[in-house]
Here is the input.
Amino acid sequence: MKAIKLWFYKTLFLSLILLSSGSIAGIEYQDKADRKQQEALSADGPYLFDLPEGKTRFIAVNPQGQRIDTVYAKRPQKWSFEVTDHQGNYPFKVTLHPIKRPTWQSKKPQKIVVLSDPHGRLDCMVSVLQGNGVINHRLKWSFGKNHLVIIGDIFDRGKDVTAILWLCYQLEQEAESAGGRVSFLLGNHEALVLSGDLRYCKEKYLLLAEKSQLPYPTFFGQNTELGRWLVTRNTIEVMGDLLFVHAGLGEKFYQLRPEISTVNLTISNALNKSKKERNACSELTAFLYGSEGPLWYRGLVRRDDKYHPAESETLKGILTHYGVNQLFVGHTIFKEVSSFYDGKVIGVNVDNEENKEEKRSRGVLIEKGRLYVIGDHGKLDQGLLVNGVALQN
Here is the structure.
């Protein structure tokens, strides 16, 4: 009798272990099915690779989930193609254009719309741009001689990373033709993906890379159109008395006080390198890509000791040294667009999907020197940050 009881309890114990590990009741098979479903391809690309003898490899996924992989013997002149989101929505036309590094310093136009961290959500980006008159119903530039700033992090989390890259690429040319400007600044997620750190990358991109027999970071290498464009993006830009950077600038940055042009070139020169290679480039490169560099530093908007928060005098020194009065950052997410240091620092990053649904703040509009909070349908009731109503602190 004791032997039977012992056998019963052992069997029960083993069954519980197997059940918790998903090895019975079909759980293991369900997990595999879920993974397979998650790994399905969806509309993406195109990715354009330069090949020897002037050839171009064209890789894309159409809205039906079919991979296209074609080699053109010669790249067409004034090459144009259509881009959509992962479901085939929001179509727009892209025409290839010459790539050059934008100036890091410019005058302040009448209007600047500032957004941050779109993270592969084209629907959210289109909504706020259309709702504030930056683009029209065909996703064409309609902001005249004004300026759009996106403070980093197109990569990771969402399914429309490539579509947003192409939209910024196209709007840049359209804005320039109209006398305006688009600035997409590099963020930490651009640095992560291009160094081979794919922990936040959606499976659809890794599956496409696998089927194309290429590592995913090579889709943005220096022999690709998007790679050449990305490596010429700035990390810091100044417009009049406003400075824009993805994460922030702190005490260590102030001690170094590097030239902004040097920061931009140093980041760009190591963008396609691994973390180890970046650290070996120079002390400045290692610092700029580190936790207290402009791609990662949170100490302007977080007061926890681990973030090495900046003292007011440090911020004052940074603003004075670079000849600006306000600093705009993304990177650290808040429920609403937020202000710090009596309005000297503006945190623009919010949960774009949630804030769109809840009709909360999505970015800021700087108009004739005054600052407004904007949602998906223009200015919100919060109104002005400076010379009026204060933002969330």
